[in-house]
Design goal:
heterodimer; A: about 140 residues; mainly beta; 1 helix; about 5% helix; B: about 60 residues; alpha+beta; two-stranded antiparallel sheet; 4 strands; about 20% helix
């Protein structure tokens, strides 16, 4: 039973007044994208980062190398996925899994690293500072 | 950038965007360290602290 003041009015006002948008005068609300949060543990030996950075927040680039299935590449990258050649497909009984170098860069806008990739998970990853953030990014297999 | 066996699959901005659909420049990686070790990005593990004790036990 709600508590009432002696004059009969409710002691606690539980009515809410929505915050209105000053332009449209419609109630304001936040859009929250629904979905499952997926977290994945990475092997540190397959993870590469800016050696000059002490934290990932300071790193200009970082990336990981991992094996993925052919179907995964075709499903996520339908444009360029069919051009991925099989690794060791010439050998009989070779696995259909391909090595994939996932590389993330340009943490700081306007600063980019030109990266030379090796398609081996234990291969060498070199770093050459780039000049133009847009045109200096390229990849090459060794 | 995502490269698979020499083929560039994706080249562009990082996928993380804010509520205004602007690229934040943040990585999708997060580091978790047991302890901070100067000069070592991965930090240190509790096993490293146990090495000396184990050697003392084993004699």
């Amino acid at each position: 039973m709600p508590r009432l003041l002696p004059d009969g009015t409710p002691a606690i006002d539980v009515t809410t007044v929505p915050e209105l948008d000053p332009e449209t005068l419609q109630p304001m609300f936040d859009v929250v994208t629904e979905g499952e949060i997926e977290s994945r543990m990475l092997m540190l030996f397959n993870f590469f980062w800016d050696p000059k950075a002490s934290t990932l927040k300071d790193a200009q680039w970082c990336g990981e190398v991992r094996y993925v299935d052919l179907d995964w590449i075709d499903m996520n990258f339908p444009d360029f996925g069919p051009y991925v050649a099989a690794q060791g497909a010439s050998r009989p009984g070779a696995s259909s899994r391909r090595v994939c170098c996932l590389w993330s860069g340009q943490a700081c806008p306007g600063r980019l690293i030109t990266a030379v990739f090796s398609n081996s998970p234990t291969g060498r990853l070199d770093e050459v500072p780039g000049e133009n953030p847009r045109s200096s990014c390229h990849a090459a297999c060794t | 950038m995502i490269v698979a066996n020499g083929v560039i699959l994706y080249k562009g901005d990082l996928p993380v965007k804010d509520q205004y659909d602007l690229v934040t420049g943040d990585f999708t990686y997060t580091e978790f360290r047991y302890d901070i070790a100067p000069g070592r990005f991965p930090g240190s593990t509790p096993v490293e602290d146990m090495v000396a004790l184990q050697r003392r036990i084993t004699g």
